[in-house]
Amino acid sequence: MLTNIIVALVAALVAVVWIHPRIVNIALLKNIVDNPNARKLQTTPVPVLGGVAIFFGMVLGIALTCRSADSGSLLPIMAAMLIMLYIGTMDDIVNLTARLRFVLEIGVVVLLIYISGMSIDDFHGLWGVGVIPMWVAVPLTIFATVGIINSVNLIDGANGLSSGFCILASIVFGIFFYITGSESMLVLCAVSVGALIPFLFHNVFGSTSRMFLGDGGALVMGVVMATFVVNVLASNGASLEAIDPNFGVVPFVLAVMAVPVFDTIRVMISRMVKGVSPSHPDKTHLHHLFIGHGFSHAGTTVCILTLNALIIVAQYLTWYWGGSIELQLYVVIGLGVATTWGLFHGVSFLRDDNPIKRMIRGLGRATHFERKGIFLILQKMSDRM
C-alpha cells in the first residue's frame, strides 16, 4: 500500500511540475486569463487553466497504480472529473450562466451516483440512525455533492486558498482511508496532494508562473472532495465503526469541510436576505474579510486553513475524550458557525477605531513581506520551472 501511495504522489507531482509552465504559456497565448475587476483581488491578468495541469497529474498518478492498487475502480470518478473540467473551462472562457452550470453539475452527479452505486445512505449511528432508504439517500447525495463542489469553487478567491484547503482535506481523508484500508481512495488522496503541491508553490511564490485553478480546476477538486465525503458516508464505503462505533463519521466529514461549507451557507443566505440571487458574485466571503483588513493572500490562506484545522482537531478531541457522536456534531457546528458567521459579522460590526480591529489590521500588515532573500530565491526557482 505504501509503495502505491508514494508512486501515485510522486508521479502526479512530477507531471504537474513538467506541464505547468506549458499550460501557462498556452493560456497566455490564447488569452484564457482572469482579468482584474472591482470584485477580483488580483491586479493583473492571470491564466486560469490550472485545472488542466491538475487533472493531467492526477490521471497519470492513478494510471501508474491501476493494477496494484485497484485504481481502475476510480474510472467513473475520473470521467466525472473530466466532464467537470470541460464545464468549468468553458465557463472560464465563455461565462456560462449560473443556471446552466447548475443543471450540468446535477447531471454529472446523477450519472456518477448511477455508475458508481455510491451514495450517502448511512448516518453511522448519528441520532440512532443507520442506513437510510434510497429515496432519501439519492436526493441527499445530489444536494450534498453539488453543494460541496460549489463550496470548493467559491473559496477559490485568494492565492493558494482552494488548493491549500484541498491538500489539507486530502491528507486528513487519506489518514481515514489508510486506517480503514481503502486503497483506491488512498491513491486518489495521494494524487490530489501530489498534483496540488507544485501548483500551490507556483501560486504562492511565483510571479510570471502564477496560474489560477479556474472554474475548471475548482470543479475538478470539488468532485474529488465530494467523492471522499460520499465514500466515507456510504454504507458500502470506508468505515471506522468496526474499530470504534463511537467515532462520529458525519461530524468528521463536516469538520474537514467546515470552512467552505459554513461560509458558503452564510454567503448564500446573506444574498437571499438582500433579495439577490444566491449565485450573484460579491466580496462577502471569509477570505474577503481577511484581505480587506490588510492580510496578504498567503496570510489569508494560512489563517483560514488554521481555523479549519482547529475544527478538525476539536472534533477529534471530543471523540477522544469520550464525547458522543451527537456532541461531536454540535461541537463542529458551533465552531463552524463561530469561525464563519461569527468572525465575519463580528469583525464587520466593530468600529474602525476599535482596539480589536486595530489589532487585526496589525496582524494583517505583519503577513506582508518583501520579496527578497529566500522568498526571492523561491520566486526565481518557481518562474524557471
Provide structural commentary.
The protein has 385 residues and is mostly helical. The chain has one domain. Helices cover 70% and strands 1% of the residues. The protein is built from 15 helices and two strands. The mean pLDDT is 87.
Spatial sequence of strands, sheet with the most strands:
1-2
Beta-strand percent range = under 5%
Q: What integer value in Å does the Rg equal?
A: 20 Å
Largest sheet: 2 strands, antiparallel
Total strand segments:
2
Overall 3D geometry?
globular
Short description:
With 385 residues, this protein is mostly helical. It has helices at 2-29, 50-63, 75-94, 98-116, 134-154, 161-180, 183-205, 214-233, 249-256, 258-273, 286-292, 297-320, 325-349, 355-366, 374-384; strands spanning 33-34, 46-47.
Task: Map the helices and strands.
Elements: H1 2-29, E1 33-34, E2 46-47, H2 50-63, H3 75-94, H4 98-116, H5 134-154, H6 161-180, H7 183-205, H8 214-233, H9 249-256, H10 258-273, H11 286-292, H12 297-320, H13 325-349, H14 355-366, H15 374-384
Antiparallel strand pairs: 1-2
Task: Provide tags for this entry.
globular; 70% helix; single chain; mainly alpha; 385 residues; 15 helices
